[in-house]
Amino acid sequence: MAIARGDGTEPYALTVLYGQRHLEEVEASKRVAAQLGAVEHKFVRVELDAIGGSALTDAIEVPKDRDESKMTDIPVTYVPARNTVMLSLALGYAEVVGAEAIYAGVNAVDYSGYPDCRPEYIAAFQTLARLATKAGVEGRPIEIRTPLIQLTKPQIIQRGLELGVDYALTHSCYDPADGRPCGHCDACLIRLKAFESLGMKDPAL
Ligand SMILES: [Zn+2]
Fold first, then answer.
1. Which of 103, 57, 63 is nearest to 80 (CA)?
2. Domain count of the fold of the chain
3. Could you tell me which residues are annotated as the binding site for Zn(2+)?
């Protein structure tokens, strides 16, 4: 969202409540959208936990202290079809408010296991967005922008710092306890290591 702002846009924020086990990230999204001045912040509920199949929506344990070399397999924190559902909602929302682009923070580098974070997937969705919308058919296709897709985690943090992102407002952990990051899931490990490599302390801890 900070990058979208930096591009001179007036961003609308979309948070999806998809049946995730904890709502820390939803609370964080409210803080971040307010701080970055979203024109509007929309919350949409989709009960993906009715389908299940993920440690983020089911009673499957979130893996802890995994070796980074093993983070290349598709992990149990993968949520079946999540990004397709979320981008579809964003596409509808974008068309309603007349947005020219959707910004999605997917990343293919740190999480190479997630099929719906890859450039091929985004390119396919871009084709869909052109064919599936009135805007696209009328020659004003909504662009899917993924500025983080090829950056490493330290590069992402650096980019945010340049744009004035307050990381104390953010949340990445898959399995927080009492609102605090666990420090041991894949998301925590990658984030902690990235801050460390920049010689910084994670301000959200
Ligand atoms: Zn964690």
1. 57
2. 1
3. 173, 182, 185, 188
